[in-house]
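Problem 3 from the worked examples.
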Amino acid sequence: MTPRRQGAMKLKKLHILMVNLPYSGHTNPTLPLARALVGRGHSVTYINAEAFREPVEKTGAEFRPYGKDYPDHPTENQKKRMSFRAAFDTALETGEREHFDLLIYEMFFHPGIEVANRLHIPCVRQFSQPAWSEATWRKAPKIFRLSAWLIDRQVLSGDDIKHMEITGRSSLHDGVIGANPALNIVYLPEQFQPERDSFDESFVFTVPQPERTASEITIPFDEMKKPLVYISLGSIISNKGFCKECIRAFGGKEFSVILSTGRVDPGSLGKIPPNIYAHSFVPQTEVLRHADVFLTHCGMNSVNEALSSGVPMVAIPFINDQVTNAARLTELGLARRVRSFPSSGRQLLRTVREVAADSEMKARAEEMRSMIEKQPGMDSIVKRIEYIV
């Protein structure tokens, strides 16, 4: 479709429906787009679980919760069993009651394209992780393909598939690789995407600038000795044994260490050496601006924030895309990988020391940071969305 000439016609205000699943790693990367669309004057209705009301409303979008059958405080098992059908039914019912010009969905909720087809409107897809193609699927580690199969078994029952009438594209593989939306927004550096040549011009890559989050803690960066090591396994993985292993390994050493303990109470970890600052929550983007090494589980949000700050990494992946992200980081010379649980404190310390001393890795991380700064911004992405409607 020929782009609208800027200034030649008045910008049409779009009514946009966004739909997502109740997982931070799949929702948070999409919020900057919602904010940018609202800022451009478009109306955005965002469907998700009640837990995401506040972050969605902060973008200026109208929040719509899943239907009444979905619990306000679901267990992890309920999320897996109920969220796909709740998102599907709520999006379809909302779209049938109101007129929308466009539907935007995140790749994990692959039935989103089926909703758009039934509403007879175009759709845009977002990737919160590296995009999938047959080429990336063939080269993905076996554990990645096994994880996709296990997820299929957990999130879409036979009854759900029959209810949604998506038997032709009911698996993650078929639903993601078999779909062909007009525009695909991939939230990572283009240089990070494996098998980049297997994706056409409908795929655009960008790293949204993370918002600074308010924090109740004050971290005395000016008083910390260098190098500064940041350790975090994300918001989902919390392991008391791992925290204690890190304290034993890094306590009294030449580093300052900021340890994010997640759901583990720092007070339960015993005596903590003065060079280690343990908190259940830390303002990650701020910490990464000061860090010299990041020991990470390799969730894509964390990887993007580290790359945007030019911080080399020690990779300790566990599941799903974390494994492929860690492989890509090591392939690009931006990280060294260590074994996941059970982790040896001695190995963690040795690898962190190697990364901290690797000036070439630091230079590559800085180069990636510069590349990210040159990639399309959110304003450019919004204009591409306007062109396809």
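Problem 4, a separate protein:
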Amino acid sequence: MDNLTEHNSPLLSLCIPTYNRAEILAQCLERHMEAIDDERDIEIVISDNASTDNTREVVADFIERHGDIRIVYHRNEENIRDKNFFEVFRHARGRYLKLLNDYTYYGAKGMRIMIDGVRRYPDEKTPLFFYMKLRKEPTDCVAGVDEFVRSVNNKLTWISNFGIWRSRLGELADTLDRSGSQLLQCYWTLSMVERHPARLVDIRDVHLLPVPGSKRVPYNFFVPHVANYYTLLSSYGLSAKTLRYDKTVLLWSFVGKKAVDYLILKKECPFELEGSWKILWRHFKGIPYFYMFIPVTLVRDAIKGLRDLGRIIRGKRS
């Protein structure tokens, strides 16, 4: 389905692979429309990975109600797993192709940052990435995998951080069979950065819709974010200094918090956790902070809780 078959090529394609999340996808698409507003240089491309729910009907209804925006819908005959990331690109016609989760959307400010970025940096020989909350935004292009990893950390694993110029799509096709199905977008990113200095732009106006009832069996939380992530990095010859830095920051800012929540405090978790401590030990045992992250995280949470309580009390008094 394509509601505007006769249409000039847009500047930006929002590319959304999806599978059995019709309700969430509907909400996500409506939020995108609010952010796009009067901008007509954007298209929305959806690649349905053989969903068994009413995804097709949801998209058809959306197209009928938004006939002034180019919306492309493609449905795979069978589930092709992560290769659907490439499939959605194949159906896009924008100059720049932005990969998105089916539960991620931009506010108007974030959409404007992305459109302006594509216009401001037109050199298609330079990979361009729009990231959610960079560790630090570089003032110039980032050269080499070491510098790139220091800037983005495990945000490499987030689907919605990947994008590519359509003119360079052939570079991804050549890697589909060799990269396997784990963290495909990470493999693509590092392959591009290894060959060319890349430009990073921070988009802070990014939002995630909650995905209810998503028990992901046998998807262990720490497999993609730790085990697969560092297995991938090891093939790119990262310096020992960068690797230690990356692991320390990852423990401090993300993995340590999740380990305390899921493994110590036993908070509700939508993932499988068997073998988690083995994964953490294998990858972090040489990092000094690994032996402190549990008490440090608990203290940080307690301080945050007290601050939140203080705000509530002050609010009631006022």
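Solution to problem 4. Residues 34 and 206 are 13 Å apart (CA to CA). The chain is about 45% helix and 15% strand.
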